[in-house]
């Protein structure tokens, strides 16, 4: 982008504040209710500061989804970990109203802004799903999952749990309940917890 | 409701046209973009005809979701059937852009209108999920699913498949692809197709 050449060097603090504000507004109002003007106002920067960096609302929201740094919204851990750690992390994540709202807004935007879903799944979720495949391989090696289990199995378990919480509507979903669901799904696959 | 007492008897043809129009607008524009005025116009009836029957946009959309009669949007078959029939039905359903859009709009509305999700899952999906439990019980009896399989297993498989298609974003999803996903999930559970 030519923005940095046309004016002052970009302030990385501004970028982070803008992306945080965009994510907040997406969660509160949905993609249709989020404007570049609204994001600039929320971030406390000039409208032009946002436009210099992201030309369209869609570009801005895609960047916000890709770089979402709020720890409460982080997908499955990107580093290695045990299956038990993944269960704990995903149960906590999927029970958070803010995360459920984010998922609902992203999926809800898929008719008018399908690129947002792609940005979220391919740029934010994909690296984390690849880490999950590594966790599954390790669980097979450790005898916690049956030999020959497809390393993509945790992706399926995650998709099932996301479908489960998103179809709950008004009801609150507790971490304990998501964990029971995750363990039921993993039970189908033949998961044997350690110890 | 007092509507019928205050004026002419309700015309069931009007009701059906109004609910069809409400569902169409929900799919096209989302809950936030659907107004009682817009629905009346689309259905070709007076605004008051809609208001007499449904006081709020939310009431109207809940009724539209409950009574959705478009065969292209029908959830899993409500009558008995084999697991193979369910696979074929769900694969066709989940690959339809109109159904994916409906699900995206319903889930997308869950932040601002959580009652819509409840109406859809409890009134439209629930009876169909109960029929799926019957299909699972029959499959166990026929030796296609392992003894002791939880009859709710098909609900989990369905939730997983819905999560899968909704997170696809821009990509088209074919019925063959959904079917492969369904068979992979059923494979985890130990499904043995007949024949």
From TrEMBL, chains A, B:
Residues 12-72 form the HTH tetR-type domain. Gene3D superfamilies: Homeodomain-like (1.10.10.60), Tetracycline Repressor, domain 2 (1.10.357.10). PROSITE patterns: HTH_TETR_2. Residues 35-54 bind DNA. The keyword Transmembrane helix does not apply. Keywords: DNA-binding, Transcription, Transcription regulation. Pfam families: TetR_C_11 (PF16859), TetR_N (PF00440). This is TetR/AcrR family transcriptional regulator.
């Amino acid at each position: 982008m030519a923005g940095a050449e046309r004016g002052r060097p970009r302030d990385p603090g501004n970028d982070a504040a803008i992306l945080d504000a965009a994510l907040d507004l997406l969660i509160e109002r949905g993609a249709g209710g989020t404007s570049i003007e609204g994001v600039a106002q929320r971030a406390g920067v000039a409208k032009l500061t946002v436009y210099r960096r992201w030309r369209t609302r869609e570009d801005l929201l895609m960047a916000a989804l890709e770089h979402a740094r709020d720890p409460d919204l982080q997908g499955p851990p990107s580093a290695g970990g045990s299956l038990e750690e993944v269960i704990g992390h995903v149960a906590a994540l999927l029970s958070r109203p803010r995360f459920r709202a984010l998922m609902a807004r992203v999926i809800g935007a898929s008719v008018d802004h399908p690129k947002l879903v792609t940005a979220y799944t391919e740029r934010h979720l994909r690296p984390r799903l690849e880490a999950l495949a590594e966790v599954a391989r390790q669980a097979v090696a450790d005898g916690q999952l049956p030999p020959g289990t497809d390393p993509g199995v945790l992706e399926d378990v995650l998709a099932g749990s996301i479908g489960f919480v998103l179809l709950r509507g008004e009801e609150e979903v507790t971490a304990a309940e998501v964990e029971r669901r995750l363990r039921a799904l993993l039970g189908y696959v033949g998961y044997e917890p350690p110890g």
